[in-house]
Amino acid sequence: MKHFLVLPVLVVFLSSLIVNAGIDEVVAAMKAGNSVMVAKYFDNVVDISMPDKSNSYSKSQAEMVIKDFFTSNPVKSFEIIHKGENAGSQFCIGTLQTKNGAFRTTIFMKKKGDIQVLQELRFENR
Questions:
Q1: What domains, with CATH codes, occur in the chain?
Q2: CB-based contact 123:93 (threshold 8 Å)
Q3: Are 39 and 66 in contact (CB under 8 A)?
Q4: Surface-to-core class of residue 2, CB atoms within 10 Å of its CB (0-12 exposed, 13-18 middle, 19+ buried)
């Protein structure tokens, strides 16, 4: 009987680690200023808001937009202010410190099937 109880607990524990892996990987990519790693988690359409432009982009367009942003604003660090999840969605609010200043950054991810996909990125001047 104990073995039947251990298996469901183990499955729930491991699935929570997998769910958090998505947002944690995106945060690590943001810290490194790595547009390729950020793009790995993009949904088919991604909303990106920046101080000078805001639009919905295809996955490949969004990767180019983020690459240009990181090229123009070399990343020094990313500090998480708040992180949470609700009904399969995850979010993270942090401060992206770049060579050209700080940006309040918001990351929104949603569970699609078995994976977390990045649906929205916001960069606001601090």
A1: 2-125 (3.10.450.50)
A2: no
A3: yes
A4: exposed
